[in-house]
Amino acid sequence: MSELATLQDKEDTRRHRLLALPAILIMIALGLIPLMIVVVYSLMAPGEYGGVVPKFSLEAYVSLIFQRDMFDDTLTFSPAYLEIYLRTAIFGVVTTVLCVLVGFPTAYFMATRPADKRNIWVLLLTIPFWSNLLVRTIAVMFIIRDEGLINTILLDLGVIDHPITLLYTNFAILLGLVYSFLPFMVLPIYASLEKFDFRLAEAGFDLYANRFQVLTQIIIPLAKPGIVTGSILVFVPAFGAYVTPLLLGGGSHLMIGDLIALQFGSSRNWPLGSAFSIVLMVIVMLALLFQLRRSGQVKHG
Amino acid sequence: MKKLTSLAIAGLLLSASTSFAAGELHIYNWGNYTSPDLIKKFEKQYDVKVTLDTYDSNESMMAKVKAGGSGYDIVVPSDYAVDIMKKDGLLEATEPNKMENFKNMKPEMVNLYYDEGRHYTVPWQIGITSLSVDTGVYKGDIDTWAVIFNPPAELKGRINVLDDMVSVIHAAEHYKGFKLCTSDKAELKQINELLLAAKPAWRTFSYDGITLLQSKDVDASIIWDGAAYRARANRATLKFGFPKEGVEGFVDNVAVLKGAKNMENAKLFQNFIMDPENAAMISNFATYSNGITGSEKFLDKDLGASAELKRPADFKVQFSPPCSAEVIELYNKIWTNLRK
Predict the structure, then answer these.
(1) CA–CA gap between residue A101 and residue B65 (Å, rounded)
(2) Chain A nearest-CA residue for B165
(3) Cβ contact (<8 Å) for B330 and A145?
(4) Pick from B203, B205, B336: which is nearest to A80 by CB?
(5) Chain B residue closest to A269 (CA)?
(6) Percent of chain B with pLDDT strictly greater than 70
């Protein structure tokens, strides 16, 4: 009987593997192979007018950190690219933190509505997704620019006599990033809070915990998987964001996305652009591993 | 689902009914650059079905063509891109110089560096990279690059610069009186310092000077002449400058890809756009000038009389071959450092 069960199990696993085959094939064809091309390109020399010449070269990775002297060819430390990585990463982290701060109360509010009303809130939250990211970003520009909605109203009310500079600042970039990625934070937190048994909070109150203690010692730890998932879903696209910083930041400061685009465009240095992409991906992967390990510890602890 | 199926069938029927034309021509051109009237006229005149796809940079077009099997007959590369594609053997020598309408081509367009004698290409639109300033905000001399690189107090923080490494550095080289694509390190050092000093006065780096000027987010911008003309339609105080230090010009050219399927139609198209009336149709849509004599009288009145397209008699326009890889590498260092 038990032998039969194992056989049945094996049969199931095999069938499941077969079911996953199309997905695996798509991943290999559209994910792994292009990725290998990028890796190979990053190890070649740049062609005269873009493209690569098939010659092994580590120059792209060397020039990430060092700059060849214009005169005597010696290598000196050059932090320009690292600064761009760092600033992009800071934008990613700040966006994630802001999304948690705004997203957690929102998700809590949604999860505490009567069960039949919750779906309406989920629907409302996803409505912005119905239109394209570019359209939404341009809409933000219309609201915050010098002659936009906010400044016009404030000027008409006499609160200010000069338009406040909102657009083309770091503030505008953060606003755009938080606005674009907030739903990615709210939905996972909502999903974990929705399953939360609020009788646990009541039990906490019965045991003389105050509201703050209930929040930090019961609700947040139980919502942690949602927060971790949300943080990953926000940080990864925010780190690689290209359109939002370009439009709202006005382009005075390059982001990693711009820098990569530049190498494939007028700088005609595809290997360097490929190397940038690889480094970006490695950073994202390390961040993911770090997050996953931390959330793993919670489960064991 | 039913709806989808019927839609698909309708689509099939549509594509079937349009393929009755005798021939085909597949054009790959910049976005928002091709007059629909011109295409209709060509289709009618030669009984050819034209399809049009668009791109947004020479680099993306060349990448697609190089990959092979693009299926296009005609592309519209800019001057330097013609040079590159010719060297890479991607273009067909269609000998426009032997075509019937070649006599209309302006003499100064015939012997440009990228296609001397016009063996491959026909000019589509011609423009210059210059600047536009709101004369209500700044009343001084605007016929100088100093407006951008050493801006007056009125314009500080109100300037847009093209998000284009080569264009901006070339403009700076014009301002300093250096040779374009200079590899002189001392000169490039001066360019570097000039850009770093000017940057705090710049608000944005963007290709979309039209929107930025019209929304009054900036009061001055590096801009192409045709774009400046369009921007002025919604902000009458804008004026286009003709810097005395000189500017860089660009020519987009109709070229035929090597081994194009519809070779004869492609050649017909090259000849077709050298007709003054047809060249004017292109200009009326794209708002840039063309290289065809006699097209002036077919231009829309506003465009024909526009200040943007009327260059001063002694105005210097330079067409620059692509810089060498070494110079581009130095440019990239300056540009990345400027915008880090």
Answers:
(1) 48
(2) A266
(3) no
(4) B336
(5) B329
(6) 94
Which residues have C-beta within 8 Å of that of residue B185, sequence separation ≥ 6? Answer: A70, A71, B330
Number of domains in chain B: 2
Do A46 and A268 meet the contact criterion of CB atoms below 8 Å apart? yes
| Residue B201's CATH number | 3.40.190.10
Q: Are residues B194 and B324 in the same domain?
A: yes
| Cβ within 8 Å, pair B325-A268 | yes
Count Cβ atoms within 10 A of the Cβ of residue A299 and give its class: 0-12 exposed, 13-18 middle, 19 or more buried: exposed
Portion 118-147 of A in contact with B at CB < 8 A: 145-147
- The reply to whether residue A267 touches residue B57, judged by beta carbons under 8 angstroms, is no
* Token pair for A101: 């701060």
| Residue B175 forms part of a structural domain | yes
- What are the tens digits of pLDDT across the range B77-95? 999 999 999 999 999 999 9
A85 vs B134: CA distance, rounded Å:
37
CB count within 10 Å of CB B236 equals 10
CA A101 to chain centre: 16
- Asked if the structure places residue B16 within a domain, the reply is no
So what's the ipTM on this one?
Answer: 0.80
Interface of B with A (CB under 8 A): 57, 59, 62-63, 66, 84, 88, 163-166, 185, 199, 202-206, 215-217, 322, 325, 328-333, 335-337, 339-340
Threshold 0.90, pTM exceeds: no
Please give the single-letter amino acid code of residue B25.
Answer: L
Closest Cβ opposite residue B333 in set A67, A146, A168: A67
Q: Identify all chain A residues contacting B329, using CB atoms and an 8 Å cutoff.
A: 267, 269
Q: Which of B328, B192, B63, B66 lies closest to A263 in space, CA to CA? A: B328
What would the pLDDT profile of A180-197 be if each residue is shown by its tens digit?
999 999 999 999 999 888
| Full residue range of the structural domain in which residue B102 is found | 21-124+251-304
The domains found in chain A, sorted by start residue, are: 80-300 (1.10.3720.10)
- CB pair distance less than 8 Å for A167 and B217: yes
Nearest Cα residue to B282 out of B240, B319, B251: B251
Residue of A nearest to B67 (CA): A51
